[in-house]
């Protein structure tokens, strides 16, 4: 279906009750609905927004177009949770209502101030000539969950030297001062991040552009996020326009970070190590982090890519969010681990230990469409070993280690319904290790694989048939000692 501009920019009130219930029914009938990931009831989800811990609960909003699987008029949809595992759908958090956000309440972030949660977001508007205007706006949520928008934007103007691609404020506080980074495009069409400061979250001062040593690195940097962890400064952002290079930057757009000394807010400089990708899978973009009540730095990303068709589109919905990951730093690198609370999902457990020697093996209980599984491989002389899951007559998804090239390889060539095949069906990353651990979270239409306790993560959507449930371990050109534990989910 081709969506006209008019259809894309319809407000939810413009849809009749009948249209909405038909859409809901269509979504409900989709065989790829997730079971333990945040997903939209209808329509399209993209970036996580306003991820925070407030008043004893986690709050998480996301970019939402309710009326179909396209990037149309964006709302903030609100979800909340006490444990990061079970999320409650609250409803629309911020709706486009005025001249400043008439064409979408775009991405932003949240921070607690004077007992309330301040939500800073980008008002996206288009004028009669379809020229984009960006405003940074504020909405305030009180203890009862009521959210009120401030009439006027808190940042009206784009500073000289930047285009209207100016969005996605991520706010934090240092001492008594609030700061926000904003993703921007310079007039010469290169991406960057700028910094503002404020004492009250309402009056903001433009501090300038953050100086990195990346030079011209893509044409736009979306969704920046700056935080400090273990004495380091980390700047996450999602650059657009980076060319593929060896095993890197294989997706349409990238998400990654630079890590180094803490940001010097006076000199606006960040001295840092090279850009590194956060995730090595097919579907990961625009992540956002927060610190929770226990001081953990937690990241959630959008499990999707802009401008790409997905098989669920036909059923009236698209995308989900990733599971929450706890971040730490080791060797100038972000280490990402699924948050401990996810163990709450574990039900029936199966465990095996075996040597796999130039063969494929299956085991009792190792079957399913939604599960968690940890596979430890050691003592290997095999050239290649790994696991195939969601295996059916003609389908399988493969995660394996190539011990000659020293690479982890995710292969979704035969995963089921194809997605974005023009960007390839295999993702690889270098890993030099004597022991290899794959920690998988498999949902109806996705997989998140944590490699060697979070050194790398591969996140991807997959669209297999419902009866593709098999799990097969294999080794080629030698043997490997395998220890695997699997948990079925509720
Ligand atoms: C990233 C992004 C943001 C923008 C939002 C709009 O996916 O393009 O830059 O705020 O999505 O939905």
TrEMBL record:
One GO BP annotation of this record: sucrose metabolic process
Enzyme class: hydrolase
The reaction(s) this protein catalyses: Hydrolysis of terminal non-reducing beta-D-fructofuranoside residues in beta-D-fructofuranosides
Catalytic activity, EC: 3.2.1.26
Domain Glycosyl hydrolase family 32 C-terminal, chain residue ranges per copy: 341-480
Biological pathway: Glycan biosynthesis; sucrose metabolism
Main localisation: cytoplasm
UniProt keyword list: Carbohydrate metabolism, Cytoplasm, Glycosidase, Hydrolase
Subcellular locations according to the entry: Cytoplasm
Ranges for domain Glycosyl hydrolase family 32 N-terminal: 37-338
Domain of life: Bacteria
A cellular-component GO term for this protein: cytoplasm
GO molecular function: beta-fructofuranosidase activity
InterPro entries in alphabetical order: ConA-like_dom_sf (IPR013320), GH32_Enzymes (IPR051214), Glyco_hydro_32 (IPR001362), Glyco_hydro_32_AS (IPR018053), Glyco_hydro_32_C (IPR013189), Glyco_hydro_32_N (IPR013148), Glyco_hydro_beta-prop_sf (IPR023296), Suc6P_hydrolase (IPR006232)
Family: Belongs to the glycosyl hydrolase 32 family.
Biological role: Enables the bacterium to metabolize sucrose as a sole carbon source.
UniProt xrefs under NCBIfam families: scrB_fam
Name the UniProt record assigns to this protein: Sucrose-6-phosphate hydrolase
């Amino acid at each position: 279906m081709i969506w006209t501009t008019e259809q894309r920019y319809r407000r939810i009130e413009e849809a009749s009750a009948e249209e909405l219930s038909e859409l809901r029914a269509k979504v409900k009938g989709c065989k790829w609905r997730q079971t333990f990931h945040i997903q939209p009831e209808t329509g399209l989800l993209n970036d996580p927004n306003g991820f925070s811990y407030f008043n004893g609960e986690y709050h998480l909003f996301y970019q939402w177009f309710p009326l179909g699987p396209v990037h149309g008029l964006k709302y903030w949809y609100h979800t909340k949770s006490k444990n990061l595992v079970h999320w409650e759908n609250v409803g629309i958090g911020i709706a486009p209502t005025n001249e400043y956000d008439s064409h979408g309440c775009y991405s932003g972030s949240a921070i607690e101030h004077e007992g309330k949660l301040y939500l800073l977001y980008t008002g996206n508007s288009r004028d009669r000539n379809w020229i984009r205007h960006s405003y940074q706006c504020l909405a305030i949520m009180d203890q009862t969950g009521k959210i009120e928008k401030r009439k006027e934007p808190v940042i009206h103007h784009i500073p000289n030297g930047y285009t209207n691609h100016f969005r996605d404020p991520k706010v934090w506080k240092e001492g008594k001062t609030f700061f926000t980074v904003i993703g921007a495009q310079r007039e010469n069409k290169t991406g960057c991040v700028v910094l503002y400061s404020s004492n009250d979250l309402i009056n903001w001062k433009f501090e300038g552009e953050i100086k990195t040593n990346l030079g011209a690195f893509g044409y736009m940097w979306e969704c920046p996020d700056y935080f400090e962890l273990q004495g380091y400064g980390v700047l996450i952002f999602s650059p657009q326009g980076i060319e593929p290079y060896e095993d890197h930057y294989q997706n349409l757009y990238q998400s990654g970070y630079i890590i180094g000394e803490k940001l010097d807010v006076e000199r606006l400089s960040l001295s840092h190590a090279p850009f590194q990708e956060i995730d090595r899978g097919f579907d990961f973009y625009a992540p956002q982090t927060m610190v929770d009540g226990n001081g953990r730095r937690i990241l959630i990303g959008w499990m999707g890519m802009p401008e790409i068709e997905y098989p669920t589109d036909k059923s009236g919905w698209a995308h989900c969010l990733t599971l929450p990951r706890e971040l730490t730093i080791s060797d100038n690198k972000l280490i990402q681990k699924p948050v401990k609370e996810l163990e709450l999902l574990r039900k029936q457990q199966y465990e095996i230990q075996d040597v796999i020697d130039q063969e494929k093996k299956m085991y009792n209980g190792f079957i399913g469409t939604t599960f968690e599984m940890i596979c430890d491989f050691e003592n290997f002389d095999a050239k290649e070993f790994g696991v195939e899951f969601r295996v059916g007559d003609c389908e399988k998804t493969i995660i394996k280690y190539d011990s000659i090239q020293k690479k982890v390889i995710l292969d979704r060539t035969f995963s089921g319904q194809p997605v974005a095949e023009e960007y390839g069906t295999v993702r690889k990353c270098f890993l030099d290790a004597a022991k290899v651990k794959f920690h998988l979270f498999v949902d109806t239409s996705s997989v998140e694989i944590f490699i060697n306790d979070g050194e790398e993560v591969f996140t991807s959507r997959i669209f297999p048939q419902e009866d593709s449930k098999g799990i097969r371990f294999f080794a080629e050109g030698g043997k490997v000692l395998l220890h695997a534990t699997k948990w079925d989910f509720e």
